[in-house]
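User: Hey, my collaborator sent me this sequence without any context and asked if I could get a structure. I don't really work with proteins. Can you help?
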Amino acid sequence: MSVPQEGSKAPHFPELDNYSGKYIVLYFYPKDDTPGCTVQACGFRDSFKEIEKLNAVILGVSPDSDKSHDKFINKFQLPFPLIPDEDKKICEKYGVWVEKSMYGKKYMGVVRTTFIIDKNGQIAKVFEKVKPEGHNAEIIAALKSL
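Assistant: No problem. I've predicted the 3D structure and written it out in structure-token form, which is a compact way to encode the shape of the chain:
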């Protein structure tokens, strides 16, 4: 599937139901406790209070297990939930489970992407091919403009 576009209805999965009436910062990342993913998660952690003040919640999604997520959350004191997507169903719905290439080898993986879902369940903003450093500041600026 392709990446949902701004203005379209956000593909549903059960965890979204817990946050109606709020903006949802839904970020997809490749792997718990790897360098770029740690930078990104810690950036969100450090901006958590400011993002919360903007009536938004943060949800991270990767193909890792609950156990892996728990270790990652505890190690870096992440104040937001990480959703396991071991069967890649959520990643596929959002078009972020794609063929990647590294050193000439092809493999399937998550392309780092963030969606801001508005209070009505619509995609308000899409950030593709996210750079982990400073992404939290980009999200805050986007939330302020909504």
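In plain terms: The chain has a mean pLDDT of 97. You can pass these tokens on to your collaborator as they are.
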